[in-house]
Each structure stands twice: as structure tokens, then as C-alpha cells.
Design goal:
Number of domains of chain A: 3
Largest interface: A-B, 18 and 18 residues
Radius of gyration of chain A: 25 Å
Helix content of chain A: 25-40%
Oligomer: heterodimer
Radius of gyration of chain B: 19 Å
Number of strands of chain A: 20
Number of helices of chain B: 4
Number of strands of chain B: 9
Largest sheet of chain A: 6 strands, parallel
Strand content of chain B: 35-45%
CATH topology of the largest domain in chain A: Rossmann fold
Strand order of the largest sheet of chain A: 3-2-4-5-7-6
Order of helices and strands of chain B: EHEEHEEHEEHEE
Structural class of chain A: alpha/beta
Shape of chain B: elongated
Largest sheet of chain B: 5 strands, antiparallel
Chain lengths: 578, 161
């Protein structure tokens, strides 16, 4: 029996085990939506903006490890997916996005709702396709899921012209795919791993620096085993949070621009950095020239381009993080020799780290009169026992969430690390909730970024996705304001949001629940109530506008040159800014 | 330092733009690029002349290898290779200049492939230096048009096998 392209689309996704699609209809993709209407295996979730659809697919993928799927129409529908694709691309998230396209004979004539989306998204997808013949469709879908999820994962886009969707052919879904031009290396080189094990044994001041690759490769167990076996402290990147237990005594906290004092000092003073599934991003290294001046670097990554991109690496190991760690642990266990000098040096190193932890913990000044945003995050952590899936927007809210919520499990932290996409967090949380209906999902947002995809509240209400949004409402673009205060002479250019809108009323207008806390004493009751309600809730926390994220490594500084919280910063509070 | 990269890529639409986009998107230099199908019509061969320090070249090579559609990347620079470029030069040739143009063509073992009462079109093959040399000699006669293919390269076989 011959199937139409639209039917092949549906059948292929079923073969891939897809259960949810985040899709927004439009002219040329109507046959696909019609084919989806006639089946029961795949549920279609209607976002209120195509960008939301892609972030939802992304949150779905991050929280499960499965490939997320989004669908949009041609032209503006397709161009609206670009930010979502770029977000997933920077953070290596496996998603497949389908877009409609005008019929093949009309491509290139500036037809209605035509956009060269394959050209537009070439630099922000791992790969993309324009399907020119319905006979290729099933194979391309198979290949797309393969490319999205294998090696270093990433987003793949498939552009489907209207005539390809409508024409018919025999359906055959290939069971496997092989690409001569894409064969990622999974097993690390044995000699390199041996060399790494020996170097680790000899290190006096070692640190493990682990990133999102540990989560993508499901390597948390191995990471923990490595750290405990060698007794080496661990710092995580923003993307790596949850890969190592946040409450573990070997955990130093996040490193980088807003990392902990201990993590940054440990990296700076180390003689051996074991980088695992991390890419030495500029937010992590600070001024590259002065990054960890005395450290030898072992770098484990599945993507060879990540190695020696920004810093020199002494022992590169290309391979899947999980598999390499298994081999590395084996090698380390075989090395039983002990060395007193090194043992003593390690003891001193741990002492120094304990001292840093004690002298400069993450901190803020609690106030009885005004809600501190960090206090809200702490309370959320306390009341959810660290069990919730937390998504964030971008800016101060993101950093405070990263600093004050301790993640003990992987795939519970959804945040746009690479691209830094405001508007990511809320739709990503909805995607995660679709994938994890029994889990508590909370977005920590700012009053600026929540407005970038606030329309998805409609999706939450209609689809009954009971996601809680904690808005740290400081009436400004907090991180921008912080930079302006510190580096632009307190000239608050275009960063004040003037307490607009009333988020409680917005929530109610959409049919969700809106709660508000103005005083610190109201924070806990509001969170408790929100957790009780089985509907989407906006919690509007009126927080201290002047609060800043510390520690902070200013742009262009080395990571040991941190600005630490001022003890008293009352003077500027006298200045009325509104 | 200049590097000569020889690539085997899938012969599909969009491949050239993927490779070119990689260079422009990451701020790498392209001095020249040429592409044509190989014996296997599903594979194309691409010669790219680029420049950069060792770190940049390492990134370029890795990024190219990572690009889906790129099957193989070889850097010829430290190896024994032959590099050739074709240039088509339309030069004005009247009176005594006709004789001079012919002489230069012969010296460089080039060919005249088209002739009009006032011009010659000369085809010359060689490395960049040779092409620059003939261009310099022909320039006084008046070059009306110059088209260069950009270099292509191939490795020499080992002689003492």
C-alpha cells in the first residue's frame, strides 16, 4: 500500500518511538496535522509560538535523554524555530525539528510563506535536510534521529515541501543507518587513558572539572566513582549541574563567572585538571592567558573540536565520557602504588579547599523587610527536598538557581547555558512536564525573561501541565542592571521594567493561578500553597532590586580575580531609582 | 602559514555552502577553494588553500572532519605534493606585440587557445609562481581579462618502493 508523505512522517515517528510532538499548524503542513489527527500513538501539543515548541522539545529531551520533536509550518513558522535550534545546538541537545516548505516547483520564487530555512539554520543545526523526493523521506527521518542522538548530540532540521508531503510512495523504514561521513569515536585510546591514570596518580593538587557531556552520556555514576576512588574534588559547569551530587563533600560548587570562590580558586591553583565532557567556555575560563597557570590538563570529550579549542591540553582523550571513565577507573584501580609525598600534598590541598569553603561560602545578607531572591531559591530547594526538575530563564535568576539549588541527580536542571536564551525556561519546563507527568517541575524566572514566552501559559492551562513558575520580580533586567551598576557608572539604560505587568492578573487571565509574596515571611506560605495546587501557578516574588550575583569574575579578568559580596552596601539603596 | 587541504565530500547540494559557511562562521581564512566530482560520482574532491597558525589549522581540520558530509580531510602541507592551477589570459596582441605574446607563451609552455585580430587567449598551467610570472610578463601588452581556477593538488607517490 502506498502512503502519502504525511502518513510516512507519522509512521516513521512511531517507529522512532515518538510519543509527543510540539507542533504549530499552518498552510503547507496541514496534511501532516491531518494525518496526526487520525492516530492515537502520538500526542500533539499545541504551543502558542513556534519558539515555544522547540524549547518544549528541548526540555523534553534534556529531562529524559530522548529525542524531542517539534513541527512548524513554512516561512515565519520556520524562522521562529531558529532561536530554539540555536539554543539546542549550543548545549548539544538532541531534537528533530520539522518545518513545512512551499512546493518544490515554487522554491526560490519568493512564494507566500517561503523561507530558505535550510540555509538559515545551517550554522545552528548539527545537520539539516530539504526533502526533495518522497522516496527519500523515511530514510532521511531515520538518519535525522541517528545524527541528532549519536556522538555529540544536537538539533537536526528537516524541511518538508508541500508536494513531498502530499505525494505517495511505498513505506519502508530502514532498521539501521550507516554514514560513511559520520562515525563518532566512542572508545577512548587505551594508551592515552593509561597515561591519564598515571598522571592523575602523580598530581598533587588535582581537580575534576565536569560538564554537560557527563549528563548527555549518562555518566554520573562513573563520575562519582572516579571522584570517590581518587578522592579528588569536583567542580561542575552550569551545564553539568546534577552530574555530581550537590551535597557531596567532594563537591566544590559551580565554577566560572558566577562560580563559587572555592571552585575558582581550586581550578586556578591546581596542578592537574581532569576535564570531563566540558569545553572550557569563556564563562568558565575567564582570561584564557591566566587560566590555571600551573595545571596539566586531561580532556575527555567525544567531540575532538572541543579539545584545544581555547586552552592547551596535555592529555586529550576522544571518546564517550561514560565509556572512557569506565576504562580510566579500571586503569586507576590497577595502579596500587602509593607515594607519601603525594599523599601529604593531597592532604594539604584538601585542607586548603576546606579552608576556602569555610572562609568564602556562597552567601547573601538575609533581610526581614525585603525578600532576597536567593532566599526564595533556598526555600524552593528546602520545600522540594531537592527533588524537583528546575528550569531557569537567563540572567540573575539562572545564576541564583544554579548557586542555591543543590542538584543531586542528573536531568533535573534545564537551563540555556551556551546561547543564554531568555524565554527558554518556561516552555522547557512544560516540555519536561509532558515527559515527566509525575515529577514536580518548577521554573525559576525573572520578570524580564518570563515575558519572552509568557504566552505558553495558555499551553500549560489547556494541556493541564501543572508547572510552577517562581518569578524573582525585581522590576528590572537584573543582570543588565548589575553590569550597569558595576561597570557603566549606574546609568540604567533600558533595563528598568517598571513593575509591569501584574503577574497575578496575567496568570488569572490565562486561567492559571497567581500568587504573590511581598514580605520574606510570605515566601514559604506562597511556595507551599503553589505546591498544593494541581494547576499551573505563577508565584510573583517582589524581591530586592539591588541584589547582585556574587562572586563575579568581571569580563576579561582571570577566574581568581573575583568580586566578592560587599558586606554593607546600604549607601546606594538610598538612591531612588524608580 | 599556508596550508593545502584536500577533502573528500559527499556530492550533494549544499555541501559547498556547509564548508564555506564553516570557514566564514568561525572566522577562518579561505584563500581559494575548488570542487569537482571524483571517479565515484557520489563523492567530490575539494581543494582548499587556507592559512593560520598551528592551533587554527588544527581547529579547521577538526571542524571539517566533524562536518557531516565531509568524508576525509588531508593536510598536504608537510608532504610531497604537486599543485597546479589553470589560468586563462586574454591579452591584446597587435603588430609586433603578437610576436611577443607568442614568444612568452612558448617560454612558459602555455597554449594559445583562441585568437582574434587584436587578441590572443592563452591557457597556462602551473603553480602560483609560474602563473604570476607569465601574468607579469604579459601585463605590458595589456591584459584584457584574467580567469584563474584556483589551485588543485595531489600527493606524489613514493619513488623508492
Amino acid at each position: 500500500m502506498k502512503l502519502t508523505g504525511a502518513e510516512i512522517f507519522v509512521e516513521s515517528l512511531k517507529k522512532e518511538g515518538v510519543q509527543h510532538i510540539f507542533g504549530y499548524p499552518g498552510g503547507v503542513v496541514l496534511p501532516i496535522f491531518d494525518a496526526l489527527y487520525n492516530q492515537k500513538d502520538i500526542k500533539v501539543i499545541l504551543p502558542r509560538h513556534e519558539q515555544g515548541a522547540v524549547h518544549m522539545a528541548d526540555g523534553y529531551a534534556r529531562s529524559t535523554g530522548k529525542v524531542g520533536v517539534a513541527l512548524a509550518t513554512s516561512g515565519p513558522g520556520a524562522t521562529n524555530t531558529v532561536t530554539g535550534l540555536a539554543t539546542a545546538f549550543m548545549d548539544s541537545i538532541p531534537i528533530v525539528v520539522f518545518t513545512g516548505q512551499v512546493p518544490t516547483p515554487m522554491i526560490g520564487v519568493d512564494a507566500f510563506q517561503e523561507a530558505d530555512i535550510v540555509g538559515i539554520t545551517r550554522p545552528c543545526t548539527k545537520y539539516n535536510y530539504l526533502v526533495k523526493n518522497v522516496n527519500d523521506l523515511a530514510y532521511i527521518i531515520k538518519e535525522a534521529f541517528y545524527i541528532a542522538s549519536k556522538g555529540r548530540p544536537g538539533p537536526v532540521l528537516i524541511d518538508l515541501p508541500r508536494d513531498v508531503i502530499a505525494s505517495k510512495t511505498d513505506f519502508y523504514y530502514p532498521p539501521t543507518v550507516s554514514l560513511r561521513s559520520y562515525n563518532p569515536n566512542y572508545i577512548g585510546n587505551r594508551w592515552q587513558i593509561k597515561k591519564a591514570a598515571e598522571a592523575i596518580k602523580k598530581a598533587k593538587h588535582p581537580v575534576i572539572y565536569a560538564g554537560g557531556g557527563c549528563i548527555l552520556s549518562n555518566a554520573s555514576e562513573e563520575l562519582k566513582e572516579l571522584a570517590e576512588l581518587t578522592d579528588i574534588p569536583v567542580t561542575l559547569t552550569l551545564m553539568g549541574l546534577g552530574a555530581f551530587p550537590g551535597e557531596h563533600n567532594l563537591f566544590l560548587g559551580m565554577l566560572g563567572m558566577h562560580g563559587t570562590y572555592t571552585a575558582n580558586m581550586a581550578i586556578h591553583n591546581s596542578d592537574m585538571i581532569i576535564a570531563i565532557g566540558a569545553r572550557f567556555d569563556d564563562r568558565v575560563t575567564g582570561r584564557v592567558k591566566d587560566f590555571a597557570p600551573n595545571a596539566k590538563i586531561i580532556h575527555i570529550d567525544i567531540d575532538p573540536t572541543s579539545i584545544r579549542k581555547s586552552v592547551h591540553v596535555d592529555i586529550p582523550i576522544v571518546g564517550d565520557v561514560k565509556l572512557v571513565l569506565i576504562d580510566l577507573i579500571k586503569e586507576l584501580k590497577a595502579l596500587t602504588e602509593t607515594n607519601e609525598v603525594i599523599d601529604e600534598a593531597r592532604k594539604q590541598w584538601k585542607k586548603l579547599i576546606t579552608q576556602w569553603k569555610k572562609e568564602h561560602p556562597l552567601t547573601y545578607e538575609y533581610s526581614k523587610d525585603v525578600i532576597k531572591p536567593q532566599f526564595v531559591v533556598e526555600k524552593i530547594y528546602e520545600l522540594t527536598k531537592g527533588e524537583a526538575i528546575i528550569s531557569t530563564e537567563v540572567g540573575q535568576n539562572q545564576m541564583w538557581a544554579a548557586q542555591f539549588y543543590k542538584f543531586n541527580k542528573p536531568r533535573h536542571w534545564l537551563s540555556s547555558g551556551g546561547l543564554g536564551t531568555m524565554g527558554y525556561g518556561f516552555p522547557a519546563a512544560l516540555g519536561a512536564k509532558v515527559a515527566n507527568p509525575d515529577k514536580l517541575v518548577i521554573t525559576i524566572a525573572g520578570d524580564g525573561s518570563i515575558q519572552m514566552n509568557i504566552q505558553e501559559l495558555a499551553t500549560a492551562v489547556v494541556e493541564q501541565l501543572d508547572v510552577k513558575v517562581a518569578i524573582l520580580n525585581n522590576c528590572c533586567l537584573g543582570m543588565v542592571r548589575q553590569w550597569q551598576e558595576l561597570f557603566y557608572g549606574e546609568r540604567y539604560s533600558s533595563s528598568l521594567l517598571c513593575e509591569i505587568p501584574d503577574f497575578v492578573k496575567v496568570a488569572e487571565a490565562y486561567g492559571a493561578v497567581g500568587l504573590r509574596a511581598v514580605k520574606p515571611s510570605e515566601v514559604e506560605p506562597v511556595i507551599k500553597e503553589a505546591l498544593k495546587i494541581k494547576r499551573p501557578v505563577f508565584m510573583d516574588f517582589k524581591v530586592d532590586m539591588f541584589e547582585k550575583v556574587y562572586p563575579m569574575v568581571p569580563a576579561g579578568a582571570a577566574i581568581n580575580e573575583m568580586i566578592l559580596p560587599e558586606k554593607k552596601e546600604k549607601k546606594e539603596k538610598l538612591k531612588a531609582i524608580k | 602559514m599556508t596550508h593545502i587541504l584536500s577533502l573528500l565530500v559527499e556530492n550533494k547540494f549544499g555541501v559547498l555552502s556547509r564548508v564555506a559557511g564553516l570557514f566564514s562562521g568561525r572566522g577562518f581564512n579561505i584563500e581559494s577553494i575548488s570542487i569537482a566530482p571524483t571517479l565515484d560520482p557520489s563523492v567530490s574532491q575539494m581543494t582548499i588553500i587556507t592559512s593560520g597558525d598551528d592551533r587554527v589549522i588544527e581547529q579547521i581540520t577538526k571542524q571539517l572532519n566533524k562536518t557531516i558530509d565531509v568524508i576525509k580531510v588531508s593536510d598536504f602541507s608537510d608532504q610531497d605534493y604537486i599543485l597546479r592551477e589553470v589560468a586563462l589570459i586574454k591579452v591584446s596582441a597587435r603588430g609586433a606585440d603578437r610576436e611577443e605574446a607568442l614568444r612568452i607563451t612558448n617560454i612558459f609552455r602555455a597554449k594559445i587557445i583562441d585568437s582574434s585580430p587584436t587578441t590572443y587567449t592563452i591557457e597556462v598551467t602551473g603553480d602560483e609562481k609560474k602563473i604570476e610570472a607569465i601574468v607579469n610578463l604579459l601585463r605590458p601588452l595589456g591584459i584584457k581579462e584574467l580567469v584563474r581556477s584556483g589551485p588543485i593538488a595531489i600527493l606524489r607517490e613514493e619513488k623508492n618502493k
